[in-house]
């Protein structure tokens, strides 16, 4: 058994033989030196070939997302940066920037002096990769945790889906089970094909019980009643994280980009097994037992429940201002005009073809354009600035009503 698995085994033993899946997920992803995001591995694909690694993210697919966000953010820069007749740099704080693709793209899209970037990256390995990529740029700072008194734009691309989740099963009535991880005595005995861990359940604690029963009641009201045995996920870290964003933000906007759905879609009968999965070498792995193997070597994730996110954001104090698909956000931000302008500077046919292919992946409903969503939260903005951020980026294709709490 490897070092990370031994640590998790010790944690389970010290907890009396069982831990929630959220704790297992946190250990598997974020244990220093050993976790998936902290162990020095390469989860991300090669930038040029998109080969290797386990997955790709939108900022890796060319300059398009960065260009669209920078174009969209200009009203915010004007609103927050007026001083002495001049517009100062827009402060942008990015959480979980991976290799730094989005930050690098924003830096290239902006003119000198227009942008001041702050990277919040708890992973020492990823922080080192970002610093190597953008070394010598004095307009970028790195922090392990956010500092209060911030006014500007906060970005989080695929951060919510990497937050540990609790796994539940509604057993009918008011009975809710929490599925977690125990030691597998059979696997410990011999098998090289088993991880030493297995799934087991116990009655849900008060917070999970309340969250699941509220969601189940809402599903009934929407005409989507669950059958006993319905499984899903609940993200306990979402609320505290959003509250920390709100407390540290004096005024500005938060842009959350991630894959997921509102509950009207999550509660459909075809999704009754939840969305928990692993990503390994560009394969999506849904088999539950396989999620307890390759610990620290595969990504663990669940689709974002955007109805939960909007409820937690409102409870934190944010104004929930917009919600659209990623493809619609890019098109509303005039990405096709940006494409035309960009292609005028590219002479090689293969490079032009690659740029077109990358944009197609970002906007196509069969690729990343539909399942990925963009959620806008705001705080302390004047009506004119807020209206400029919402229109047109979040007007055509607006889905905000579908995720607001009932």
Write the layout of secondary structure elements.
Blueprint: H1 3-14, E1 19-20, H2 21-30, H3 64-72, H4 74-80, E2 82-83, E3 86-87, E4 90-95, H5 101-109, E5 115-120, H6 124-133, E6 140-143, E7 150-157, E8 166-170, E9 176-183, H7 185-189, E10 197-203, H8 206-221, E11 230-234, H9 238-248, E12 249-261, H10 263-266, E13 277-280, E14 283-285, E15 299-301, E16 304-305, H11 306-316, E17 319-325, H12 326-332, H13 335-343, H14 349-363, E18 372-379, H15 383-390
Parallel strand pairs: 4-5, 4-7, 5-6, 7-12, 12-16
Antiparallel strand pairs: 1-9, 2-3, 8-9, 8-11, 9-10, 12-18, 13-14, 13-15, 17-18
Helix pairs in contact: 3-5, 4-15, 9-11
Structure description:
It contains 15 helices and 18 strands. With 406 residues, it is α/β, with parallel strands linked by helices. The protein folds into 2 domains: 3-38 and 164-234 and 267-297, Rossmann fold (3-Layer(aba) Sandwich); 58-162 and 239-263 and 304-402, Rossmann fold (3-Layer(aba) Sandwich), CATH 3.40.50. Strands 4, 5, 6, 7, 12, 16, 17 and 18 form an 8-stranded mixed beta sheet that branches. Strands 1, 8, 9, 10 and 11 form a 5-stranded antiparallel beta sheet that branches. The chain has a 3-stranded antiparallel beta sheet with strand order 14-13-15. The longest helix has 16 residues, at 206-221.
């Amino acid at each position: 058994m490897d070092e990370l698995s031994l640590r998790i085994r010790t944690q389970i033993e010290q907890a009396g033989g069982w831990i929630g899946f959220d704790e297992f997920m946190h250990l598997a992803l974020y244990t220093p030196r050993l976790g998936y995001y902290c162990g020095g591995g390469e989860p991300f694909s090669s930038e040029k070939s998109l080969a290797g690694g386990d997955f790709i993210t939108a900022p890796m697919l060319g300059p398009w997302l960065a260009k669209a966000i920078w174009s969209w953010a200009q009203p915010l820069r004007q609103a927050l940066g007026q001083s002495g007749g001049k517009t100062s740099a827009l402060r942008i704080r990015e959480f979980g920037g991976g290799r730094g693709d989005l930050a690098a793209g924003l830096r290239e899209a902006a003119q000198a002096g227009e942008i001041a970037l702050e990277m919040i990256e708890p992973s020492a390995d990823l922080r080192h990769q970002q610093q190597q990529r953008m070394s010598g740029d004095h307009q970028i700072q790195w922090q392990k945790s956010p500092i209060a008194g911030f006014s500007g734009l906060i970005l989080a691309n695929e951060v919510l889906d990497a937050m540990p989740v609790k796994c539940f099963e509604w057993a009918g009535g008011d009975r809710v089970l929490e599925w977690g991880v125990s030691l597998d005595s059979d696997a410990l005995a011999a098998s090289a094909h088993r991880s030493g861990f297995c799934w087991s359940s116990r009655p849900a604690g008060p917070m999970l019980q309340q969250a699941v029963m509220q969601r189940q009641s809402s599903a009934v009201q929407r005409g989507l009643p669950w059958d006993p045995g319905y499984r899903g996920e609940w993200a306990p870290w979402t609320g505290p994280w959003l509250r920390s964003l709100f407390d540290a933000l004096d005024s500005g906007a938060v842009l959350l980009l991630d894959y997921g759905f509102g509950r009207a879609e999550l509660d459909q009968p075809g999704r009754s097994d939840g969305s928990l999965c692993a990503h390994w070498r560009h394969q999506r792995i849904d088999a539950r037992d396989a999620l307890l193997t390759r610990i620290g070597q595969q990504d663990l994730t669940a689709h974002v429940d955007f109805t939960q996110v909007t409820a937690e954001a409102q409870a934190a104090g944010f104004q929930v201002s917009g919600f659209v698909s990623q493809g619609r956000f890019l098109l509303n931000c005039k990405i096709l005009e940006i494409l035309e302008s960009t292609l005028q500077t590219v002479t090689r046919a293969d490079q032009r073809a690659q740029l077109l292919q990358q944009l197609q992946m970002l906007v196509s409903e069969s690729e990343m354009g539909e399942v990925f969503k963009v959620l806008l939260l705001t705080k302390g903005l004047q009506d004119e600035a807020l209206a400029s951020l919402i229109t047109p980026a979040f007007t055509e294709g607006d889905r905000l009503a579908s995720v607001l709490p009932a």
